[in-house]
Design the sequence.
């Protein structure tokens, strides 16, 4: 009985990505395409197992100009984020793609989103961690 209850409890937990993303290592590698050194992800088994799974992230909206229904959220506020010279890496930001247009968000607005994780290690037009088919979770 205890085993069945434990399995049910752990299978019903929502996966939060920021802590799992921290298991990703990065190595600097020269990109012929960009003509510069870039950080290439080395995904842990734990991270790879989440690809295609639905995960939830709570992060700060970053006001970066993206096409369509895409936004970027950060584990940390704008002033401390990866793009602004904070002492964090690419594991602290995620690109979020919605199927439908969203209302305008304020800089640093705290959002909780749920979507399918897509890992990226070769498309320089997108971030390493992407949530597709995302929705906003109202708290």
Sequence:
């Amino acid at each position: 009985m205890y085993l069945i209850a434990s399995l049910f409890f752990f299978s019903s937990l929502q996966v939060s990505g920021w802590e799992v993303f921290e298991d990703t290592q990065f190595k600097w590698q020269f990109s012929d395409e960009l003509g510069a050194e870039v950080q290439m992800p080395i995904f842990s088994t734990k991270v790879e197992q989440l690809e295609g799974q639905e995960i939830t992230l709570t992060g700060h909206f970053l006001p970066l100009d993206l096409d369509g229904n895409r936004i970027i959220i950060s584990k940390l506020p704008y002033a401390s984020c990866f793009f602004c010279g904070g002492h964090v890496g690419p594991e602290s930001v995620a690109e979020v793609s919605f199927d439908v247009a969203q209302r305008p968000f304020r800089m640093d607005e705290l959002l909780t989103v749920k979507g399918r994780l897509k890992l990226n290690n070769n498309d320089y037009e997108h971030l390493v961690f992407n949530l597709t088919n995302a929705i906003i979770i109202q708290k």
